[in-house]
Amino acid sequence: MVDLRDTICALSSAPGRSGIAVVRLSGPSCFGIIARVFTPHRAEREMPARRAVLGRVCDPHTGSELDEALVTCFRSPHSYTGEDVAEVSVHGSPVVVSHLLEFFCREGARLAEPGEFTLRAFLNGRMDLAQAEAVRDVVEANTLYQLQVAARQRSGELSRQLGPVRRQLADVIVSLETAVEFVEEDLAIESRTLLAGKLEGVLEELSKWIDSFRRGRIVRNGFSLAIMGRPNVGKSSLFNALLAEERSIVTEMPGTTRDLVSEFASVGGIPVRLIDTAGLRDGENKIEQIGVDRSMRVMADVDAILLVLDTSRHWCEQDEHLRTRLSSLSCVAAFNKWDLPSVWVPEQKAEYAALWPCIDVSALTGAGIESLRLAIQQHLFGDGAAERDGLLVTNLRHCRCLEAAREALTSAACTLGNGLSEEFVLVDLHRGLRKLGEITGETSVEELLGEIFARFCIGK
Questions:
Q1: Within this chain, do residues 235 and 328 fall inside the same structural domain, yes or no?
Q2: DSSP string for residues in 3-32
Q3: Is 421 inside any structural domain?
Q4: 107 located within any domain
Q5: 8 A C-beta contact, residue 335 and residue 375
Q6: pTM for this prediction
Q7: Are residues 154 and 96 in the same domain?
Q8: Which domain range does residue 275 map to?
Q9: Residue 377 in contact with residue 268, Cβ under 8 Å?
Q10: pLDDT one-digit tens code per residue, 330-366
Q11: Which of 84, 174, 247, 312 has its CA at a distance of 20 to 30 angstroms from the CA of residue 145?
């Protein structure tokens, strides 16, 4: 672990050329370094808090001016890290930024490690561990919905909802501890039935949050969808329609797509990697067969498959072979070319799709595309597809802590129901409470901190 008593500095805006670049300083020597490097245009007795001051950044050894800058100071503990912090806005030239950081380091600062600003914010009580992890999710969000979910976590939504559950669990522990400590006295402790009821309520909440991780994982990480089917059924046209742009080449010639073509889009505010594949058939030449082989291999790597069928042509052996090949996989069936007369009756479509969701679409006219998007969401998320509010567990570490807590509390409830001594129940209850505390960092998590914050970008 790095020395957290150091003063640290880093570029906090995006690297490269830009209109403005923001360099951040945090630590006990922060304001002293600023005083040696920065000269305000108007004389200031001391740098004011939370007010931008215009001036010049100069080399403290030679006095030569580097750039004009705006400096904003935040005094401890009212800052992002809880320490003295200064944010220096300069012109977004990599040369200016590198020299400014060099000045700061010569004056006693050091370059920050990844996530070190947010680590200090956590250690100084400015946010809990779940909020700190959500900062990274906010920075890495690719869609508005991802940003909204991460922002709720960053504002402490998970911590707030965990609070009542932890207090209820603590009440059960206190009741049982009282029974153990004062067994010789006639104390009015709650009955085992009442305590078991409280535990059951806690377990229901934990199960609900654990179940939300299936959706939360996809919201946070996005998902991949391979578009598959036999040649010339309109896979590339449907790929382009879902992207709302001409990305794949479309011709009437079968086998046009020879290699995997992938692009990112948004479905319901969730990033999706769409993969256009070669038509599945016995290749007529070596190059086409390589493309078919790659299409078959990609099936194992994607979250779901969009199977495209041409309803203007009769059900054939190739269609049947595809259904058999994909029967055990997560699929959505798209009956394409809805704009043409269909030779598939509704009963045939239902029989072919079986338990898969199926939608009639026309990649040419765009008919049914929005319904297809909703079907994909419903298929991936189940009944939770339309839910936008409430707690959504998006972090694997949080889910594992919740699962461990549920396992411990289930064991405690079983022990309590079997009439065993309170000491045995308390062992599992304390284990469950510790696991819940690990989510927000309220119990010992030193071994986790390096792993968590090392994944942050520099300057956060």
A1: yes
A2: -TTS-EEEE-S-SSSEEEEEEEEESTTHHH
A3: yes
A4: yes
A5: no
A6: 0.78
A7: no
A8: 228-381
A9: yes
A10: 889 999 999 898 888 888 888 888 888 889 999 888 8
A11: 247
